[in-house]
């Protein structure tokens, strides 16, 4: 077997990565009265307490970030997070070391903003945060880092205004949670049409990261199997978003709108497409709205997905003809590939042909974010 150091480096763009906001971010960008209501995280023993505008919950955190060494042993040499998880410049060093070039970058604490119930606070915080991520995250290397803007879900009008503002400050993607806040119309309702139109017109990609329904899906189950049940459960949230956007006609009415569902794998796409087609055909007398293309065609055309480890995802392309899947590192999370990215990429892509490898490591990503461009020849 070839040693990792002698192997070709497989460079890839990542459709799923995260940054950790500075602990004092909200104090930097908002007046104190607003800053103190924004999401914050505190470590208490092995747990993390998330506090958001008067609500709080506790979740268990991994103590040590482990990495797999060349000898296959687990080395606990890194402290809790990789060096660049809070520092955009150091982040580029981590990416170079791992062989990741461009990446979609999600907020961490910002993801909890969907729990806030005050529309004015969410509106002003997303505006301020988007300006900050445009300059501090994307600004570190606008040709590699593609951070996703935060939008208010409490008002469609605010979401549209902020999407346009985010584009105006240079961002290319906007993040929406997989579940809408309580009392808000779900994504299959026509209420959201102005947002779909604005995304289509501005070319902003709408990015949904699995497991962001606003409740703590990561601790839904306890007891036997609980850890894996909770891990898998978060995946379904992305599939539900795809189901709603296709069957409601939202994507059919906005054929240039592109959606990315990050971290949820890709092999579910052919299955969901077949299942929707069956319902659309067999229950045709109940189906509304009628669509101009089959549900599976819409799904295959407009929904992009990312996966990190699942070998079965590649079969969605090679066996089932689904082209819009990309790899994702999930940096810097425990589920991600930091520390063993090259090992993972070789395991996934050594057995497949070059065109398949290119499509999944770069091509699908470039459909969404052409400004990033292919990995430069000087590094690859
Ligand atoms: Mn992720």
Can you tell me the overall shape? globular
Name the CATH superfamily classification: Metal-dependent hydrolases
- The number of domains is 1
Q: What is the tally of helical segments? A: 13
Major beta sheet, strand line-up: 1-7-8-9-10-11-12-13
DSSP E strands, number: 13
Q: Do you know the CATH architecture?
A: Alpha-Beta Barrel
Tell me the CATH topology. Answer: TIM Barrel
N-to-C CA distance: 22 Å
Observed structural traits:
380 residues; alpha/beta; 37% helix; globular; binds manganese (II) ion
Give a structural overview.
With 380 residues, this protein is an alpha/beta fold. It has one domain (12-38, 83-368): Metal-dependent hydrolases (TIM Barrel, Alpha-Beta Barrel), CATH 3.20.20.140. 37% of the residues lie in helices and 18% in strands. The protein is built from 13 helices and 13 strands. It has an eight-stranded parallel β-sheet with strand order 1-7-8-9-10-11-12-13. Strands 2-3-4 form a three-stranded antiparallel β-sheet, with no helix packed on it. Strand 5 and strand 6 (74-78) form a beta hairpin. Mean pLDDT is 90; it is low at 62-80. Residues 16, 18, 209, 262-263, 330, 333 line the site of manganese (II) ion.
Topology:
Layout (H helix, E strand, L loop, with lengths): L11 E7 L6 H5 L2 H4 L4 E5 L2 E6 L2 E6 L4 E4 L5 E5 L9 H11 L1 E7 L12 H19 L7 E6 L5 H13 L4 E4 L16 H10 L2 E5 L16 H22 L2 H4 L5 E4 L5 H15 L12 H8 E5 L4 H7 L6 E3 L13 H9 L4 H15 L12
Parallel strand pairs: 1-7, 7-8, 8-9, 9-10, 10-11, 11-12, 12-13
Antiparallel strand pairs: 2-3, 3-4, 5-6
The protein binds manganese (II) ion (MN).
The site of manganese (II) ion has 7 residues, from β1.
């Amino acid at each position: 077997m070839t040693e990792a150091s002698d192997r070709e480096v497989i460079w890839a763009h990542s459709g799923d990565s995260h940054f950790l906001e500075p602990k004092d971010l909200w104090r930097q960008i908002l007046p104190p009265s607003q800053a103190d209501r924004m999401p914050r995280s505190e470590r208490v023993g092995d747990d993390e307490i998330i506090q958001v505008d008067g609500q709080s919950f506790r979740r268990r955190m991994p103590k040590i970030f482990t990495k797999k060494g060349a000898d296959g042993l687990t080395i606990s040499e890194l402290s809790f997070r990789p060096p660049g998880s809070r520092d955009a410049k150091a982040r580029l060093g981590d990416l170079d070391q791992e062989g990741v070039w461009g990446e979609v970058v999600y907020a961490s604490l910002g993801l909890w903003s969907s729990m806030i119930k005050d529309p004015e606070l969410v509106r002003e915080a997303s505006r301020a945060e988007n300006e900050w991520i445009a300059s501090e995250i994307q600004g570190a290397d606008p040709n590699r880092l593609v951070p996703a803007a935060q939008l208010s879900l409490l008002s469609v009008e605010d979401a549209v205004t902020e999407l346009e503002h985010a584009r105006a400050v240079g961002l290319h993607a906007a993040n929406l949670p997989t579940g809408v806040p309580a009392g808000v119309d779900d994504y299959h309702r026509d209420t959201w049409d102005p947002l779909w139109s604005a995304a289509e017109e501005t070319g902003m990609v709408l990015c949904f990261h699995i497991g962001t329904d606003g409740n703590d899906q990561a601790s839904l189950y306890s007891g036997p199997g609980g850890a894996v049940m909770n891990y898998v459960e978060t995946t379904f949230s992305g599939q539900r978003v795809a189901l709603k956007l296709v069957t409601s006609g939202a994507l059919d009415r906005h054929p240039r709108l592109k959606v990315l569902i990050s971290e949820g794998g890709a092999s579910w796409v052919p299955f969901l497409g077949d299942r929707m087609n069956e319902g659309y055909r067999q229950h045709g007398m109940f189906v509304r709205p009628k669509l101009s293309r089959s549900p599976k065609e819409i799904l295959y055309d407009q929904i992009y997905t990312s996966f990190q480890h699942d070998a079965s995802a590649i079969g969605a392309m090679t066996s089932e003809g689904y082209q819009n899947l990309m790899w994702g590192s999930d940096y810097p999370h425990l589920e991600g590939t930091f520390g063993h990215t090259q090992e993972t990429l070789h395991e996934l892509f050594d057995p497949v042909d070059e065109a398949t490898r290119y499509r999944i490591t770069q091509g699908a990503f470039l459909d969404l974010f052409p400004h990033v461009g292919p990995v430069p020849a000087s590094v690859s």
